Structures are given as C-alpha cells and as structure tokens.
C-alpha cells in the first residue's frame, strides 16, 4: 500500500495501516453523483479517463475520486497503466503526458470502479481523511482557526499556499488544533508515502505530472513504524527511470 500526499498537508492525528487497509483491500475514496455541470473540468477528466481505459462514454453525473490524501494499491496501478498502454497502443508514459486535461485520481477511480470492480472497491468510503480548504479567498487568523475546528474525524488538514492565507495564520491555527503532528502521526504498521509537488518550469512540471502521479508504481521501499519520504527527483527516477517504457 502507498499513500499519495499533497504537499500542503499537515498530519494531526495518529494513524496506521489499518486506517487504509482492510482484509487486504486498500481504502478507496469515492463520492457518487458528485460531478456534474457545475464542475466542467472534472467532467473532462472523467471523459478522458474512460477514453484511456477503453470504456464506453457515459453522461454525468460522475463519481468524484479526488482528495488530498489517498491510498493506492501499487498492483492495481500497474494493472491500470497496462490497460492504458493496451488501449492506446502506446507506452502509458507517452499517452498520459500527451493529455492536456487529465486527473490521475479520476483515472484510478474509474479503473477500479468500472474496469475491475470487486474486491478492489469493497473498502470504499465517501469520507475524506483530510480536511481541505479549497476556496479562492484567503483565511484570516481567526478564519483559519474556525476552519480547523471541523477537523474531526480526519487525520490531516490542509490550507494550501495558493489560497493566499498568510503563513503565520496557517501555522498559528495548526498549533492550536488538537494534534499529534508528524513524525508521530504513524503509530504502527508499515506505510510508504510519496510527496506530491509542482515545479514552475513547464518541462519539469510535465515530468512531475507523469511520474509523481504514479510514484506508487515502482521502486518503493517499505518502512517500519514511519514513512519513507521521496524528493521530487527521486520520485521521477523511481517511477520512470526504473520502467522499461520510453516516454
């Protein structure tokens, strides 16, 4: 099992493998009938995912698979990428890098739900494990504190820098949240984690969009009692450099 974690996340509560794995099945976040005409980009992501997987077109509403803290089964990721390659007749790296509008979360979710089904989607939940602030306007100091009051029962919280919330306000709010912050957040079991970042330079951003999104594919070492964090460059080496496919 691997976790893919947004770069702005702060872990605030203990968790272990049992949070994300049940009877050998990795937790699968899905929120049915959530994507409709209010979210045009999400609709495109769903349509692209279906095309890449060779599935028949379907009309919205679609299921939402996007969150900031998600568990992934590397075996399923490998199956999914093989399906993309077989459907398109090209290496998955080439196919995905050529998509102007694309969501890695949506591709994985559609594959699990509509291509393979049970038991891969038997441990499904519509409850995100990270409380995330997605609004455009910045939070004030008190606003950030009020936002984090809704953190239960999640294990993480996120107020991204792109919200333009002052760093001091974010730090103060997180200090005041009932928390047991990293590195003590993982209290048992084996958990492997990757760290998602974005680079400003277009070529590096493209590489990140292909490799970091599927860093769960190959090359991870499992860690006991705490996670293994990978730098962006190492993630790229693990996900693409170890592959026999040529982008």
- How many E-type strands? 14
Q: How many whole angstroms does the radius of gyration measure?
A: 18 Å
Q: Give the CA-CA distance, first to last residue.
A: 26 Å
Number of helices: 9
Strand content: 15-25%
Give the helix level as a range of percent: 25-40%
Mean pLDDT across every amino acid position: 76
- Total number of distinct structural domains: 1
Low-confidence stretches: 179-247
Please state the overall shape, judged from the principal axes of the Cα atoms.
globular
- The SSE string, one letter per element, is EEEHEEEEHEEHHHEEHEHEEHH
Structural class: alpha/beta
Task: Specify the biggest β-sheet.
Answer: 3 strands, mixed
Strand order of the largest sheet: 9-1-14
Please describe the topology of this protein.
Elements: E1 2-6, E2 9-11, E3 15-16, H1 17-20, E4 21-22, E5 25-26, E6 28-29, E7 31-35, H2 40-52, E8 62-64, E9 69-72, H3 74-88, H4 92-97, H5 104-116, E10 124-125, E11 130-132, H6 141-148, E12 156-158, H7 167-176, E13 186-188, E14 192-196, H8 202-211, H9 232-241
Parallel strand pairs: 1-14, 3-13, 6-10, 11-12
Antiparallel strand pairs: 1-9, 2-12, 4-5, 7-8
């Amino acid at each position: 099992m691997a976790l893919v974690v947004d770069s702005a996340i702060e872990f605030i509560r203990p968790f272990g493998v049992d949070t994300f794995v049940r009877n050998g099945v990795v937790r699968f976040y899905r929120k049915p009938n959530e994507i409709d005409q209010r979210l045009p980009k999400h609709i495109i992501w769903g349509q692209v995912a279906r095309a890449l997987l060779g599935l028949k077109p379907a009309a919205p509403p679609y299921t939402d698979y996007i969150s900031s803290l998600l568990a992934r089964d590397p075996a399923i990721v490998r199956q999914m990428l093989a399906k993309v390659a077989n459907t398109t007749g090209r290496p998955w790296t080439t196919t995905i890098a050529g998509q102007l509008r694309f969501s890695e979360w949506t591709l994985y979710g559609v594959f699990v739900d509509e291509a393979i089904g049970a038991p891969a989607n038997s441990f499904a939940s519509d409850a995100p494990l990270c409380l995330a602030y997605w609004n455009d306007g910045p939070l004030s100091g008190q606003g950030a504190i009020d936002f984090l009051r809704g953190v239960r029962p999640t294990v993480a919280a996120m107020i991204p820098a792109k919200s333009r919330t002052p760093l001091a306000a974010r730090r103060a709010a997180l200090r005041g949240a009932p928390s047991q912050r990293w590195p003590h957040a993982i209290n048992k079991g084996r958990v492997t984690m990757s760290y998602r970042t974005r680079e400003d330079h277009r070529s590096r951003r493209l590489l990140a969009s292909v490799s970091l999104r599927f860093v769960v594919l190959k090359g991870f070492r499992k860690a006991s009692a705490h996670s293994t964090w990978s730098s962006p460059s190492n993630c790229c080496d693990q996900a693409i450099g170890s592959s026999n496919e040529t982008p």
